[in-house]
Amino acid sequence: MYQLTPQERRAVLFLICLILIGLAVNYAAKLNSPIATFLDPESGFNKININRAGYQELLDLKGLTPSLAGKIIEYRQENGPFEDLRQLKKVKGIGERRLERIKDCLTLD
Fold first, then answer.
1. Where are any strands of DSSP class E within 1-109?
2. What pTM does this model have?
């Protein structure tokens, strides 16, 4: 069909192998990634209760810095438990975009 030189055949074979290895590594990373399971709302993980979460639990949320985790706890101590997740925007450093990223991982229950 195609008349390829031996060197061209090796190059094509090399590229095909590289693509297959890349796909396999990507699949394995997604399959075994604990963060992928944590961030996928459909995976059945337990959401973090924003009113009871400790410092370390808050740090586990993607998008929260150590400073913000401390500010959430401080806000909770000064103002009582959160009644609505939108109330998190009152914490300095948490805006609409950050709240949108983390709200699916949080609960008030």
1. 48-49, 106-107
2. 0.58
